[in-house]
Amino acid sequence: MRASMSELIDNATHRKQTLKDLMRQLDAGEPPAEVRARLKDLLGAVPYHEVVEVEQQLFAEGVDPKQMSRACDLHAQAVNGLVDLRRSKAPPPGHPAHTFKMENEALRAEVGILEKLFAEIEALSEDADALPLLGSIRARFNALMDVDKHYLRKEHLLFPFLEKHGVTGPSKVMWAKHDETRELLEVAMSALPASGVAVSGADARALIEFALRPAARAVADMVVREESILLPMSLEKLSAAEWLQVERQSPEIGFCLYDPQDVWRPSGVPEPEQTSAAAPDRIRLPTGSFTVAELEAMMNALPFDVTFVDRDDTVRFFSHGPDRVFARSRAVIGRKVQYCHPPSSVSTVDEILDGFRAGSHDSAAFWIDLRGKFVHIEYRALRSASGEYLGCLEVTQDLTEKRALAGEQRLLSWQRGA
After folding, report:
1. What is the distance between the alpha carbons of residues 190 and 207, in angstroms, rounded to a whole number?
2. Phi, psi of 157 (to 5 degrees)
3. Which of 44, 197, 207, 353 is the most exposed place for a label (fewest CB within 10 A)?
4. Which residues on neighbouring strands pair with residue 379, listed in sequence order?
5. Distance between alpha carbon 229 and the CA centroid of its chain, in Å?
């Protein structure tokens, strides 16, 4: 008696061969919807690790990585919602996989807002003014540019561990898709008009079609692939000790639209011994030295806020005292400083930083009334002993009380609370 199709594909080998044949049909030009229907009829739910294994087999058979990258989106469309996640573990808060998931939620929300804005523009008349809506769209794309940190953590922290476990597909396919998404986002940002430039409804719709929606969809498609394949498989492959290494190195790259608040430490994985021999060396400068803990306490005790922006205009550090004037979260680390300002002020920020780089000036100061507070903001260029530009320090201080001081208070006359 002939075995039924369901009996055959119940075997993992036959199931993966069927999946490979369906992927080849996609690559040959079959519509994803039709392949998806056949995939659902033949396979039902597909285990997530088998999708990766099949893609790696296609690599081994000589499929061009660039062609595989182009097919990645089609594969994601075909298997979206059909991947079996029953074996997938749920990571606890603070775990790097949980952070990736929370960042994906934030990215998905930004794309959802963009789609609503796109729909509003598509409902405008041909000659209507679309600039206000495009301003809102620019703000959302400013947020999406943060995805670079999400991708960098995958590329430099997660992929190496997967490769150690013999899983090479994600680093070959996803890295190429990351670069493609980065390019699409850069194109979208460049295509968005500056404030004050008139844009008709017809021109805005063309902009959405050719530059904005492709970038937003690229971000959304990668979210689907991570949630259905990459993260479940990574949770299965990586040990707790490996995840701990990912967790410890993540803050150096920064986070994307989400600042993890929970501390995750796996049971059974010992912390490094806190002995004097294992402790980091003191940071030594020409005028003294201190430990990292002492430096952190010093920065957080400053009576003003400081933010360090490196020579590439990337935010690298901010002090975190209890009375900050402007709120900051670690999601800003690794982000271009231009994306931390409203579009109307970006040109001024660029002018200041370009002047710092050129050496035409070393500081720029501003003062504003902020809800009854007199706030002073100053940017200062940082240079090496040889004059090389190292970056910029932003110093923000609430001078309300100091501005009202009169007379004098000497050390000998100091009293608690005065």
Report:
1. 11
2. -115, -40
3. 197
4. 364, 394
5. 19
Give the H/E segment covering residue 47.
strand 46-47
- CA 88 – CA 61 distance, rounded (Å): 29
As a whole number of angstroms, the distance between CA 166 and CA 78 comes to 25
User: Hey, is 309 helix, strand or coil?
Assistant: strand
Q: What is the DSSP string of 224-243?
A: HHIIIIIHHHHHHHS-HHHH
Residue 141, pLDDT above cutoff 70: yes
Contact predicate 57/242, CB 8 Å: no
Residue type, 5: M
Q: Is 43 helix (H, G, I), strand (E, B) or coil?
A: helix
The angle formed by the CA atoms of residues 144, 250 and 298, to the nearest 5 degrees, is 105
Integer Cα distance of 12 and 84 in angstroms: 14
CA separation (Å) from 404 to 276, 398, 399?
A: 48, 12, 9
Phi–psi pair at 318, nearest 5 degrees: -145, 145
Is the pLDDT reported for residue 81 higher than 60?
no
- The two beta strands, 389-398 and 373-383, are antiparallel
| Residue among 89, 107, 90, 98 at smallest CA distance from 149 | 107
**Poorest-confidence range of 252-261, 287-296, 350-359, 384-393?**
287-296
Residue with tokens 């952070």: 99
pTM exceeds 0.85, yes or no = no
Q: Whole-angstrom Cα distance, residue 142 to residue 83?
A: 32
Query: Could you tell me which residues come within 8 angstroms of residue 59 by beta carbon, excluding any fewer than 6 positions away?
Result: 65, 68, 168, 169, 172
Strand partners of residue 83: 46
Q: What are phi and psi of 344, to 5 degrees?
A: -65, -20
Side-chain-facing half-sphere of 264: CA atoms under 13 Å: 21
